[in-house]
Specification:
Helix 20 packs across helix 21. Strands 9-8-11-10-12-13-14 form a seven-stranded mixed sheet, with helices on both faces. Strands 20, 25, 26, 27, 28, 29 and 30 form a seven-stranded antiparallel sheet that branches. It has a five-stranded parallel sheet with strand order 2-1-5-6-7, sandwiched between helices. The protein is built from 25 helices and 30 strands. It is α/β, with parallel strands linked by helices.
């Protein structure tokens, strides 16, 4: 896929220049000077030769058939250059030129025009407004970046051309091999989804890395990335997170969710490893490219100094990995190779005067130990430390378990660091960064071992829910009232107490008596979303007189507070049993679709914001994982002497909610707040529900 773009045999540079420093010259010079083995065709109507290559006024006049055209002319001439390229058989076109949608409406229209032109011509378009692309295995630098790193197994795509040059510089400094580097620019045609799919099929790519500022088609990206991650890791550094939550929302779920949370949920669903920083993006990638995946979380630490060993142990524990006890037989054998003062427990301390032989023995022991899944090796430079020889000893004793190394220091350990990377051992400046990369490897290994997703479908009365929602939309009730929302809940077999709207005090008493006292009373108005804030909720009304008085007082007081609100009456509902209050919710992200939310009620949501999100639809396992990922999950399991609630029943409700919001895309936001949960074997009760419909559905 995208062979003509990523691995062309013939490349034309339209806008090639004789003047060093101009983009058209630098692209041509990179292709010539960095050893591209295919045919290079410079196009410039004002000269006959550039850099020893015959130059042509146009591709049409050259008569040469091409695979890839790299266009670096003024944006007003780009369309003409595309037509020339298509006429010469180009299967791919890379437009370096800027001045398109990034500069305003006129540029955006021009961009649409050239994208349509390329598509109609049967080719694919990279850019515009991009740096170009590099394929190290073909010695092809079709960009205006100055240098090219050595060939490797990591392929990188970046939405920022400037960041591409930083990536290249870092790779060259570390002598880190890359396979492909792609600057995706404005994404008029080819976007991150297309390149994830192409690189997943590329035999020269072992790890896919992406710097992204946005994603064009969220659902397609999730599906494609998940397919890719089944065969190779995908690491993404997503920027633009600081204003993610700045949105208006009427539900708790909508107010707590934001664009960045949606990206996090999407990445988790698709097996993407999200790098929190630019440095970690490459920390993860180098570990994944160079080492086998761990089979578990158990980590052996090898160090020549106590402090770094403690740092690493802290990092392991904080990341959820395990500093595992070593096998006693292995410890006994290792003790024979180390001084008496050394520690053969975990961390293994080979002492400050350790030379390469002690590291060799410790690494070999950790590789043989059945209690160990991964090895972290630390070194601080002492007078007798053999940095290069130690690097070689570590490499010579590698095995089926991943080894990540931190040579701490600067100038003294530099040669050892370089030796490690050349030998295919990932190296980090601190124990914390090494452990963070190992954690990413463990997460990816666990994701790969997950069984195929099976989303349960529950028997429901979908037609009944559809009638309720259609009636609300037809009458302009985009904030669906509690009574209608609970009708929808009943249709999807949620446990909803009996209740009915009462327009007068007499009606309220009549309803209360029929459904059975005590009851709850709630104001009904399309203009009031948060009822409690206005005194619009009364609980445990136990007599007809209490019901009548509560109705009259509620209508009077709220009528004074909100004289313009349309008060339809009150909703009278049977009081439910006591239990633990939790919140289930959904907000529909414009890119990725419905996101489910779970959290404990009260201060846990309102103040602590202790909630988790997951993309719908969810499996039973994913629903349970949502519960376990809250900080307050221990309270559901019965911490502090409280009884354990039925967590499986909550997970079941999450799955039903998932089915509901997947079935009805017109539901924009939704809260079940609270859902009252009891002990194991009891059915959770929907105490309140709120639905917001899309106005464009």
């Amino acid at each position: 896929m995208l062979e003509k773009l990523l691995s062309p045999d013939t490349v034309a540079v339209i806008g090639a220049s004789r003047t060093p420093g101009k983009v058209g010259h630098e692209i041509l010079a990179n292709l010539v000077n960095q050893g591209f083995g295919g045919t290079i065709v410079p196009i410039n109507p004002t000269t006959s030769e550039i850099l020893g290559l015959k130059c042509y006024p146009s591709l049409k006049e050259s008569g040469i058939r091409i695979d890839l055209a790299v266009i670096a002319v003024a944006n007003a001439r780009v369309s003409e250059a595309i037509a020339d390229s298509l006429g010469a058989g180009a299967g791919a076109i890379c437009v370096i030129t800027a001045g398109f949608k990034e500069v305003g409406h006129e540029g955006a229209e021009l961009e649409k025009k050239i994208a349509r032109q390329v598509r109609d011509g049967g080719a694919r378009l990279l850019g515009p407004n991009c740096l170009g692309l590099i394929n190290t295995h073909r010695r092809m630098n079709a960009s205006f970046a100055k240098e090219m790193p050595p060939p490797g197994a990591i392929s990188v795509m970046s939405q920022s051309g400037a960041l591409c040059t930083a990536i290249l510089d870092l790779a060259i400094e570390r002598n880190m091999g890359l396979s492909k580097l792609i600057s995706i620019g404005n994404k008029a045609d080819l976007d991150e989804t297309a390149f994830v799919e192409a690189l997943a099929e590329d035999p020269e790519t072992r790890v896919i890395v992406a710097y992204l500022e946005s994603i064009e088609s969220g659902k397609d990206f999730v599906r494609t990335a998940a397919d890719a991650a089944r065969t190779k890791p995908v690491v993404v550094f997503k920027s633009g997170t600081s204003s993610a939550g700045a949105k208006a929302a009427s539900s708790h779920t909508g107010s707590l969710a934001g664009a960045d949370i949606a990206y996090g949920a999407a990445f988790k669903r698709s097996g993407i490893l999200r790098a929190p920083t630019f440095e970690s993006m490459f920390d993860y990638a180098t570990a994944l490219a160079m080492q086998p995946l761990p089979k578990g979380k158990r980590v052996a630490i090898i160090t020549n100094a106590g402090g770094p060993g403690i740092m690493a142990a802290d990092a392991v524990e904080h990341s959820g990995l395990l500093v595992t006890p070593l096998d006693k037989t292995i410890m006994g054998e290792l003790a024979k190779s180390l001084p008496d003062a050394a520690s053969v427990a975990n961390p293994i301390d080979v002492l400050g005067d350790a030379q390469a032989d002690r590291y060799a023995a410790a690494v070999a022991a950790a590789q043989q130990d059945g209690n160990v899944d991964a090895v972290v090796v630390l070194l601080t430079p002492q007078a007798m430390t053999q940095c290069v020889e130690t690097a070689q000893a570590i490499s010579a004793n590698r095995g089926a378990k991943p080894i990540l190394v931190s040579f701490m220091g600067g100038k003294v350990v530099m040669d050892g660091r370089k030796e490690l990377l050349e030998l295919g051992i990932p190296e980090y400046p601190s124990p914390e960064r090494a452990v963070a990369a190992l954690k990413a490897m463990v997460e990816y290994a666990e994701w790969k071992e997950m069984p195929p997703r099976v989303v349960a479908r529950f028997p429901v009365n979908r037609r009944r829910a559809e009638r309720v929602l259609h009636r609300c939309a037809r009458t302009g009730q985009y904030q669906v009232g509690e009574a209608a929302a609970k009708d929808v809940m009943r249709a999807y077999n949620f446990n909803v107490p009996p209740g009915r709207i009462a327009a007068t005090a007499d009606d309220a008493v009549d309803v209360a008596v029929k459904i059975g006292l005590p009851v709850a009373m709630k104001i009904v108005s399309p203009d009031i979303v948060h009822k409690s804030d206005l005194g619009g909720v009364k609980l445990n009304l136990s007599t007809p007189d209490e019901v009548r008085d509560a109705f009259d007082l509620m209508m009077l007081r709220i009528g004074k507070k909100m004289p313009d609100a349309h008060l339809q009456g009150t909703y009278i509902e049977k009081m439910g049993t006591r239990g633990r209050e939790v919140i289930l919710g959904m907000t529909r992200d414009p890119q990725f679709g419905p996101m489910l939310m779970f959290g404990l009620g009260g201060i846990f949501v309102e103040i602590m914001k202790d909630v988790t999100f997951h993309l719908a639809p969810v499996t039973a396992q994913e629903a349970l994982e949502m519960l376990r990922n809250t900080k307050s999950y221990a309270l559901l399991e019965g911490a502090r002497g409280r009884g354990r609630v039925d967590v499986d029943a909550i997970a079941n409700c999450l799955q039903r909610l998932s089915q509901l919001v997947t079935d009805f895309p017109q539901i924009q936001e939704m809260d079940i707040n609270p859902l009252i949960v009891g002990e194991v074997g009891t059915d959770p009760v929907v105490a309140d529900a709120r639905i917001t419909l899309s106005r464009t559905s």
